[in-house]
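Changelog entry

Holo records now carry the ligand SMILES as an explicit input line rather than a separate metadata file. Below, a converted record for flavin mononucleotide, shown in the new format.
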Amino acid sequence: MGRVGRRVAAAAFCIWDAFVIEGRAVNPNAAKSVPLSNDHLLAQLHWRYATKKFDAQKKIPAATWRTLEEALVLSPSSFGLQPWKFFVVENADFRKQLQAASWGQTQIVDASHLVVFAVKQDLGASDVDRLFDAMVKQRGADRAQLEGYRQMMLGFVANVPFGITTQEWSARQVYIAMGQFLASAAMLGVDTCPIEGLDPAAYDRILSLPQKGYRTLCASAAGYRASDDRHANLAKVRYSHGEIIEHI
Ligand SMILES: Cc1cc2nc3c(=O)[nH]c(=O)nc-3n(C[C@H](O)[C@H](O)[C@H](O)COP(=O)(O)O)c2cc1C
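Structure line, unchanged by the conversion:
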């Protein structure tokens, strides 16, 4: 991290607390936690697998899909900048074209739903201002009091301090949203297949994403497993707890 980057990061973390407590509006859902049991969480995570063969006849009920879209909207992102858009591809002809651009993977056309995870191109000052305006409106935050934070965000976005480009930093956020989507679907008993085996440039072309200011990163099919998908019962291949988790 360079000198400017270090200064921006230091400013960011100093101002964080002041920022978090700003605003008069409260979240009406904040007190509604209904935790799953440990067993229930793990049961669903073991049940989830990257579904290779979907039942093309089984559709996700509208209310369940609406919930999954809400899970996408609620995904966390750095500073809350939400440098993404999630394209739900309903058009059957687009789905066929996308399948050809995804090594022919059948999940693209057979699954009930397909989401394309896209990253915002050229994240910059207008995106910071968009968030800033939303904070003022939705949280009842004081514009003048938040000006220092806005300036810090502008500096951060112009010069991301982690030795990576702003575009790469934005892309990381999108993958977090995909993780949230996969886990949320599993909790609801909806099967998914995350898909990076695709040609992003072809996806962009088919869906006209650059014209909308976005670029494809990955996708996820969602629906219900076919009864003869032999992958459903394969043992999970994971390194041991001790190899992956180290307490220090
Ligand atoms: C970012 C990402 C991209 C993936 N791309 C594909 C893909 O294109 N096609 C596919 O069948 N599975 C894909 N997978 C699924 C992985 O192969 C799978 O998650 C991994 O082998 C672990 O198996 P499990 O998810 O069934 O437990 C992808 C997974 C991730 C996280």
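Spot-checked after migration. DSSP finds eleven helices and four strands in the chain. The longest helix spans residues 166-187.
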